[in-house]
Amino acid sequence: MQVAKVLSEKLKHEFKVTALAGELQKKYEVQLQKIGAKARIPGFRPGKMPREILVKRFGAEALEDAGNGILREAFAEIYKEHKFRNAIDPAVNVVTFEEGKDFECLIVFETLPDIDVKGFNDISLDSLVVTISDQDVEQRLKKMHDEHVKYAKPSEERAAQKGDLVGVKWSGTLEDGKGIELPEIYQILLGPEREDSPFAPIVKALYGKKVGENFEGKVQFPKEEKVAELAGKKAVVKVEVQKIEEPVTFQLDNTFAKEFEAETLEDLRKTVRSSIEHEGKKVAHLYTKRNLLDALDAQYTFDLPPTMVENEFKAIWDQLQRELTEARANGELDEEDEEKSETELRADYEIIAKRRVRLGLLISHLADSNKIKLSDEEVRMAVFQEAMRYPSQMDDVIKYYVNNNQALRNLVAPLLEDKVVDFILSKSNVTERNVDFSTLKKVVRGVIPTPYDEDEEISDEDQKASKGASSKEKKPKPAKAKG
Hints:
Layout: E1 2-9, E2 12-19, H1 21-38, H2 51-82, E3 91-96, E4 103-110, E5 124-131, H3 134-147, E6 151-152, E7 165-174, E8 179-180, E9 185-189, H4 200-206, E10 214-220, E11 234-247, H5 254-258, H6 265-299, H7 306-329, H8 335-339, H9 342-369, H10 376-388, H11 394-403, H12 405-426, E12 429-436, H13 437-444, H14 460-466
């Protein structure tokens, strides 16, 4: 067997492996004898099977085993000489592999880069310490009050009106006689209605109807309808009003507090304050972490394994396509997104893919070189918390992670990353900066995804007030998947 390096280009290395036909044949015969010694076929004792039958039944298996034997020897020789640290599993491309011919293949390695770790004391970052005021608590309470809607049967029987939740039993039939797949029982909120919905006529017809009333309505599905069988077709929907409920009005008092399992409004205030404090700490930490990753990304430049970048880009690109498709369908696509060509988008997201791979390799290297790892208890807790998201399947979820090492690594990877981030922060120049909750929301906006992204637009004055607090790096806008 001969092993010859035919390519060495940065992190990519290619070797040509050649074994003469005679060598392959010898290994083939050895494997065939091993199989024959164990094979049990009616009419023949083990080891006494005629060669022609053995070849017919097990020849392909023996040849595969012989080829694998050559590959194992080739890998052992390559690793002994080069001591590669694989970024991904090596790829084997077979050139010739037939009985009676020379065995020839190419083995392609992509290796991990050598990373020259720099000191962290020249990294300067803000660590935001968030102060929660009584006003923050009251604003959150008001939001909870405004968004907490409960429905109950009106004290007196009446017709449906704006704001009611109407329960209907309905069925639909297309003009060609085929039925429409609809939930038999459905609840419809009256007002505001989507005028572009094909069911808008049905919803409007509910106004003024009472429990027990029946009616029919016509529906016209648009040509762009997602369900192909419905696109551009008309239908008749039969409706029976089964229930009418009106919104319950709450005062901001102890009764409202009990809706959130608090005994008194004051108890609820304490819970809300604790929740905002926890939220603020989490957001502030994510902000510091993001700025740290930006600093590391700017500080480190090294070669990246091509396939790792390609795989990361594919994952980002596939997610982007799903999001853009959904945004277009819902009429929510940003003008800036629509104006970009596919070439421009690909260039943007290749940058993000490279950033993710670079930072992932750096984080992994720092974890290994500094012996940073998760304890068994931390891993168990991570699995348990994930399993708690699926109460009816907890045992199955736990078994899945116990028996799937790759899934387990993916689950705990963010926890290990946070440990490495904390390690770096402990060696960096971190300055604590006190901010109120309102300022926090302005500072982090556009830097990290937060619950505040849907808040009203920040004024020019607010933008200026927070200028300098953010080390935001300009990133391509279209997808929610950020670098």
